[in-house]
Amino acid sequence: MENMGKIQIAGLFPDEIAAWLADYDTASYRADQIFHWIHHQQVNEFVEMSNIPNKVIELLETQCHQPLAVEEVVTRKSIDGTEKYLFRLEDHETIETVLIPDGNRNTVCVSSQVGCAMNCSFCATGQGGCVRNMTGAEIVSQVLWVQRRLKRENSSISNIVFMGMGEPFANYREVMKSIHLINHPDGLNLGMRRITISTCGLVPQIERFARENTQANLAVSLHAPIDSKRSQIMPINKKYPIEQLIDACSYYVEQTGRRISFEYALIDGFNDSTEDALQLRDLLSDLLCHVNLIPINPVNHLRRSKSQVIQTFAQVLEDAHISVTIRKERGTDIEAACGQLRQRS
After folding, report:
1. Measured between alpha carbons, how far is 340 from 336 in angstroms, rounded to an integer?
2. Which is the catalytic residue, given 90, 96, 138, 167?
3. Model-level pTM greater than 0.90?
């Protein structure tokens, strides 16, 4: 795959690297070594590849983008340990990535698009629209860059969530390529069950993802239990209303046997009443699922629900034996909501 005239080699599998090297009369086993250096060792300079001949290094430097297709611009660290990175891409567009440490877990939240076209009212990313899809190389390079940073601290990534900038399923092919690169046994070798892809509700892609049965997790941004409310804050609901969305989610569960997660951002006075909780209970009662209740980061004058209201909402779901958690607040002091750091920078 090429961008700005040079190959983004972090987005190539070993067989793709081998096919490219064959045009230059280079042995195919060099492809495995190059892939290992990038995806297992996370080098960011070709000269760091100590067992690669100089003539191949020169070829890589001439024909390829640097190994990791992102460049650090800004890093912010929260008092709770959360780190947010603003990365510049080769065309000078910027995207955000977040590292969320929690005990022995290091979760990386990655972006899949520059901006977002979904225009959800509670999300800062969508305010600027969607500039373009990210390449598989740009997506996986976020992960490799953070892994390289963690390795210096004798730590490593444990989980990856596609909950950063963009709608992952609107960039389906490159997102799927990136998770297979992350899962590759000669690279990070991170288990698929440690990867979660979040969607605002693109029904055809949910069904396609169900048929692929990759073992990666699926999270669906729901945020309201009825169409009249969901359409106010999520324009995608006008195209794929709740009934269609829940049918697609049921299909996913039937095809994979896996539990689906629903993200529900609680907005003060809008979707956080006991009536809303009861409607959500009725909507999800027959579905193998888990609900993540999220106190929103304030965006567009929307305010987060009060703590007691959140607890009451959760109790309604628990009483109906629906699995529920309240997501911990992280990184509110470092523009942690999607798109906020990019806007300010």
Report:
1. 7
2. 96
3. yes
